[in-house]
Amino acid sequence: MKMKKLTLLVLTLVMGIVLVACGNTPQEKFTKSVEKTSEPADQSTSTIGITIDELPATLKAQQSAAMLEGLTVKMTVANDQKAQKSATTIAVKTAGLVNLDATVDLLVDSKAEKVYFPLSDLYDDKGNLTTLLDQVTSGMFSQIKKDNPDLATKYVELSDLAKDLTDEKAKKEATDTKEVEKATKDLSKKVTKTVTDYFNSLPEDRFKEGDNGELTVKLTKTDVTKLANELVKLADDKDVKADLKVIATSQGVSKSDFDEQYASAVKSAKDSIKDLEDEKDAAITIDATIKPGKNDSIENMKMKVKITDTSDKENPESIAFTMTMKTTDSAKLPKFPEASDVISTTELQKIIEEATASYYKSMYGDSLTDQETDTDVVQ
Q1: How many Cβ atoms sit within 10 Å of the Cβ of residue 287?
Q2: CB neighbour list of residue 259: distance below 8 Å, 6 or more residues apart
Q3: Kind of pairing, strands 155-157 and 342-344?
Q4: Mapping DSSP to helix (H, G, I), strand (E, B) and coil, where does residue 306 land?
Q5: CA-based torsion, 255, 260, 265, 266: positive or negative
Q6: Model confidence over 2-60: pLDDT tens digits?
Q7: Hey, which of 47, 269, 272, 334 has its CA 20 to 30 A from 224?
Q8: Chain Cα centroid distance, residue 157
Q9: Looking at residue 289, what is its pLDDT?
Q10: What is the per-residue pLDDT for 23?
Q11: Burial 326-336 (b: 16+ CB within 10 A, else e)
């Protein structure tokens, strides 16, 4: 079994449920809470986390995959729709081959079309980001921080970098913000309806309610493939494709490229689902738990996923991970930077280049520069 491919498909499906995700019965309460996710509050804070609980031996043997051992990713997004501002914090920790402990923040001003990264994240030594970067740069990163203490209060404006990485011609095809918002909401409603319709089609006794109000349902490989097939059917809806085109072109994808990429993505999704249906040695379980909050919306969600390859009956292998989500109807945004607090990526690059040159000069004198100059002359 192609464990990576199956894991990617299941993870994508689970993320879809989380991101789209009370009556009298546990089933009605469960589906009503999921349905409420298509009606976001004006202010909200959502925290989504993923933790790798188990890795199969074959993946641990691969250097790139072994880095996932003990991985925990936590993303918190505070969003104020009226102010058109949001703040995202991403925290990553690993306990495997590479020991990583880092936090990154992004501030987005949608109205001004600005994205800011606070350099204070690089000056905060709570994690081990400085240590890792020093290992890569032979200690130069710490020297740059030491020589430029004023950067600790600055923000890098990333919007120009994003523009450089996109096709300017394609950007001209981008639609206005209101069209994108409408397309996003329409798409969310269709996806949410598909998910809730599937949950409503399940036998009522599969849903349980605990004394603390938590609602649970266990999904199997059959559920995963059936729900995935229902979701991929949306690709044949011309309105769904139109909404996705609006969103994609707003991100810089040309309309002609979108049509080609869309067809390829739909085919890839259908092929993956077919592979999963045909894979007789694959076992999948998803234990989904929802705690409804006020107005029946999801307050907490937890999904424990386990994928097992039983092709080797004596040594079956499994990968397991847990996804969590918590939401509140409030958003505490940090102070956004003033113009005097912001530097461009070009300015930051210049500072790094000058600091790098100074660093190597202090270590090697002018010999390195002289060698580079001699090489240029010869060429």
Answers
A1: 14
A2: none
A3: parallel
A4: strand
A5: positive
A6: 555 556 556 555 655 554 544 457 887 778 777 777 666 788 899 999 999 988 877 77
A7: 47
A8: 21
A9: 93
A10: 45
A11: bbbeebeeeeb
Residues of the chain under the 70 pLDDT cut: 1-24, 38-40, 63-64, 66, 160-176, 364-379
Which amino acid belongs to residue 77?
V
Q: Are 143 and 355 in contact (CB under 8 A)?
A: yes
Per-residue pLDDT at 170: 41
Q: At what angle do helices 3-20 and 177-201 cross, to 10 degrees?
A: 100
Looking up tokens 């004006």 gives 42
Quote the tokens at residue 83. 């102010």
Give the pLDDT confidence score for residue 11 in this predicted structure: 59
Q: In what order do the strands lie in the sheet with 282-292?
A: 207-209, 215-220, 282-292, 298-309, 317-328, 43-54, 72-80, 85-93, 101-109, 114-118, 155-157, 342-344
Write the DSSP string, 29-53: HHHHHHHGGGS--SEEEEEEEEEEE
DSSP alpha helices (H): ranges in 57-204?
57-60, 63-66, 120-123, 129-137, 140-147, 159-165, 168-172, 177-201
| Distance (Å, whole) CA 130 – CA 145 | 10
Q: Are 120 and 155 in contact (CB under 8 A)?
A: no
Residue ranges of the domains in the chain?
3-119+154-334
Mode of pairing for the β-strands spanning 215-220 and 101-109? unpaired
Reduced DSSP (H G I as helix, E B as strand, rest coil) percent helix, strand, coil of the chain, to 5: 50, 25, 25
Cβ count near 262 (within 10 Å): 16
C-alpha separations of 80 from 108, 155, 234, 333, 364 in Å: 11, 21, 30, 8, 51
Helices and strands (DSSP H and E) totals, the chain: 15, 12
Burial bucket for residue 66 (CB in 10 Å: 0-12, 13-18, 19+)? middle
Q: Give 164-178 as a DSSP string.
A: HHS-HHHHHTPPPHH
One-letter amino acid at 221 equals K
